[in-house]
């Protein structure tokens, strides 16, 4: 009897293994634990934004994503109407090349305006996209349901997404991306300089259109320097000039600009602007030649006044930048 038992047990194991191996398995996998890594996802209102995608937790690719409802988290109220409205936004139709796309005409040829929702969900990855139109939405925390589908089937994930739509500035300047500075540089010897007091800076978004930055420089008494008369120019880099070249200025970031008696006006076709730094973060450098300025504590005719401020625009519109020295006067 024992001998028969030893024979039957291996046979039973073989049958079980064979039965399991031959059993038909399901196609693919759709995890019940798909999720976003961040919750809530912070979205700055009005800025171009792209979140990380969904963590599929091993879900078979590809999968498709569809929003069922948006909710106001504080009240639980469905707010689909709020997120279904569309607004005009400029989008690229071709690759932007700063080396060849040097005029507004060339740049605009690669841009078109379409109407899109201010917040949308990428149907392939679940990434949350935000754009300029989000300025029209109330700040607050929102949630949404997703229907996710792949070869396995379809599953609804209630309130899987949670994002915080936050008011923010439409630009960055001091102190977030840099600081103002003021340097007196000796005429004829760019390597010799005297550091002055940091100038005052105000940046204001004054209108929704057109897309321009108006820059004004004024002395400690409130007198504006005149770029039309050459009282404001681009600043050369230190050392032997004209090589190395000029430090970055808005004249280098856009080829479309003009001067008035008290301002330099720079047109920009897209945001963020500048799109990329020319090599020294987003600092803008300008110079007031020595014949137009009296520097406190220094003899006239020996030093130029060199001013710097940082700026990066995230939302289209018209901006006014005013930089004021506190220790120099118009000559």
Structure description:
This protein has two domains: 126 residues, BT4661 domain 1 (Immunoglobulin-like, Sandwich); 160 residues, no CATH class. The chain is 11% helix and 37% strand. The protein has four helices and 23 strands. The N terminus is likely disordered.
Outline the biggest β-sheet. Answer: 5 strands, antiparallel
Number of domains: 2
In N-to-C order, the SSE pattern is HEEEHEHEEEEEEEEEEEHEEEEEEEE
> Are there runs of 5+ residues with pLDDT below 50, and where?
1-25
Strand tally: 23
β-strand percent reads 35-45%
Instruction: Work out the helix count.
Output: 4
Mean pLDDT: 89
Helix content: 10-25%
Which strand order spans the largest sheet, edge to edge or round the barrel? 12-11-20-18-15
Kindly report how far apart the N and C termini lie.
118 Å
> How large, in whole angstroms, is the Cα Rg?
30 Å
Q: Find the structural class using helix and strand composition.
A: mainly beta
Shape, principal axes of CA atoms: elongated
What's a quick, concise take on this entry?
Helices cover 11% and strands 37% of the residues. The chain has 331 residues and is mainly beta. The relative contact order is 0.16.
Topology readout:
Layout: H1 2-22, E1 41-44, E2 49-50, E3 64-72, H2 80-84, E4 87-92, H3 104-108, E5 111-116, E6 119-121, E7 128-130, E8 140-150, E9 153-166, E10 171-172, E11 181-186, E12 193-195, E13 200-207, E14 212-218, E15 233-234, H4 250-253, E16 257-259, E17 264-267, E18 283-288, E19 293-295, E20 303-310, E21 312-313, E22 318-324, E23 328-330
Parallel strand pairs: 1-9, 14-22
Antiparallel strand pairs: 2-7, 3-8, 4-5, 6-7, 8-9, 10-21, 11-12, 11-20, 13-22, 14-17, 15-18, 16-17, 18-20, 19-23
